[in-house]
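Handout, page 2. Input:
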Amino acid sequence: MSWVQDQLDDETLFPSKIGVPFPKNFQSIAKTILKRLFRVYAHIYHQHFKEVVQLSEEAHLNTSFKHFIFFVQEFNLIERRELAPLQELIDKLTSKDR
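Output:
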């Protein structure tokens, strides 16, 4: 997570001043960041979900993850094969029947 924060704080990657251009490889950088954040979600779901449930926080986790997935799907930022570890959950959370 500190690596992601370091990337977001890097003015050469994420300029905060008006008129300063983003780097040419910005999309590649963003995809790498989002792929790593997905892995954090996967780790939480696979290794810590029991604790999340004990804290009655699963609705918050699921909502956060659902928004994350809608964003990466809308802009095709993570390859489908990378999402495979949580594909069943993704399908459940993003189903129109829900």
